Amino acid sequence: MRAWKRRAVGALCAVLALLCGGCALPDAGFGDYDVSGYIEALLDSSYHNAHDRFIAVTGVSEEIAQQNRTTTVENAAVNFCNAYNLSPNEDQLARLKDIMGRTFDQAKYTVKEEQKIETGYYIEVEITPIANFAGLAGTFSDLRTQAMDEASAANASQSSQGVLGEGQDGFEPGDGDEDEDWDEEEAEPTPTPAPTPAPTPGVKVDPYQLYMEKVLEYCQAQLGAVRYQDQNVTIALDIRQTPTGELQIDLNQVDALDKTVLMFGETAVG
Q1: Whole-angstrom Cα distance, residue 152 to residue 172?
Q2: For residue 95, what pLDDT is reported?
Q3: Which residues contact 207 (CB under 8 A, 6 or more apart)?
Q4: Is the domain of 142 the same as that of 122?
Q5: Looking at residue 267, what is its pLDDT?
Q6: In-domain check, residue 268
Q7: Phi, psi torsion values for 228, nearest 5 degrees
Q8: How far is the first Cα of the chain from the last one, in angstroms, to the nearest whole number?
Q9: Which helix (H) or strand (E) holds 19?
Q10: What are the two backbone dihedrals, phi and then psi, of residue 244, each rounded to the nearest 5 degrees?
Q11: Residues 7 and 91 occupy one common structural domain
């Protein structure tokens, strides 16, 4: 398992750097204590890669605002890999991040008006989850089988032609395969196999790397027709206000937003 999969990745912002102790927010169409406006600007920055409102409200640099987006996309890639037990190499991970970012661009959500409570503020965010990457265990199982069969055939062909060196003609799982279970799971329609890349003479085809390529091709194809869950989901945010007026949000709540906007795993949320 690669180190990046084990790394704890922080979400958006641990502290909302918004001091409301009688101070007016920057003039960007927001009134004093417009916490809902702040949250909407934060989500726009993170999901839609649109930073102008967030910069206007917080006064941070564009580089810092961009970090909202970068962290959100990185977290999504890690969550996706953890959900389906994947171990991409660095190039594959970069491509996966690009796919996650382009999917987030199409996120649908509505931030409701904040309610002042004793501890701070209560805000609801209504989300229409993106469902393209949920329930894919069976599909990926089929892709694993295809990759194993295609790699075995390619390697056997090279071996029969005397291309592979001694000890290279057997099937060996690729990097990251130590955690893989190659048994088929639930039955689903078999995806159209991607063309098997022509083997480089003298180089064994790694079935795991071929599998990862098929997964990325499948995910890339999903960008052409983003599917949304029929039922909207409401996430409640409990924004705490400190005695000095600083607003804080639990990172678990931010993580819940991310995982609802873009769903992974086998079950829909609702």
Answers
A1: 9
A2: 98
A3: 147, 148, 150, 151, 152, 171, 173, 174, 177
A4: no
A5: 60
A6: no
A7: -110, 145
A8: 32
A9: strand 15-19
A10: -90, 0
A11: yes
Could you read off the pLDDT of 215-244 as tens digits, one per residue? 999 999 999 999 999 999 999 999 998 888
Please classify residue 182 by burial: count the beta carbons closer than 10 Å to its beta carbon, then call 0-12 exposed, 13-18 middle and 19+ buried.
middle
- Of 160, 161, 171, the residue nearest 210 (C-alpha): 171
184/127 same-domain check: no
Give the chain's residues under pLDDT 50: 1-31, 165-188, 270
Q: What token pair was written down for 263?
A: 């769903």
How many Cβ atoms from other residues are within 10 Å of residue 59's Cβ? 11
Do 99 and 220 touch, CB atoms closer than 8 A?
yes
pLDDT at 201: 57
Q: With 0-12 CB in 10 A as exposed, 13-18 as middle and 19+ as buried, what is 116?
A: exposed
> What is the distance of C-alpha 54 from the center of its chain?
22
Which of 17, 108, 21 has its CA nearest to residue 57?
17
pLDDT at 237: 95
Are the beta carbons of 177 and 83 closer than 8 angstroms? no
Domain that holds residue 257: 3-132+228-261
Among residues 12, 94, 9, 91, the alpha carbon closest in space to that of 46 is found at 12
DSSP codes, 190-255 = PPPPPPPPPPPTT----HHHHHHHHHHHHHHHHTTS--B-SS-EEEEEEEEE-TTSEEE--HHHHH
Find, among 195, 153, 151, the residue nearest to 174 by Cα: 151
